[in-house]
Amino acid sequence: MPLVVPGIQSSDGSNKEEWSNKLMGKKLGESHDNVTFAKADLPKEHRVLKPDSMSTMDHKPERLNVHVDEQGTVTNVRYG
């Protein structure tokens, strides 16, 4: 297993890659299964962004931004 040092491998020391692995290609729902991730298990600081949705431009390094497509499938995960 590779050594991971926060702030060196990632610019903000976040665990974005871990969240990407958990969420990419899944839908958000009430429980877990092969194609769904439970919303309740997202970090406290998060927001789900749909296509063409408006969002504030404030930068919060601890906030997980989950981008979904028209069908509700996760397409991108980032912090900020």
TrEMBL record:
InterPro entries: Prot_inh_I78
Pfam families hit by this protein: Inhibitor_I78
Region of interest (Disordered), ranges: 51-80
Protein name: Uncharacterized protein
Gene3D superfamilies the record matches: Trypsin Inhibitor V, subunit A (3.30.10.10)
Biased composition annotated in UniProt, kind: Basic and acidic residues: 57-70
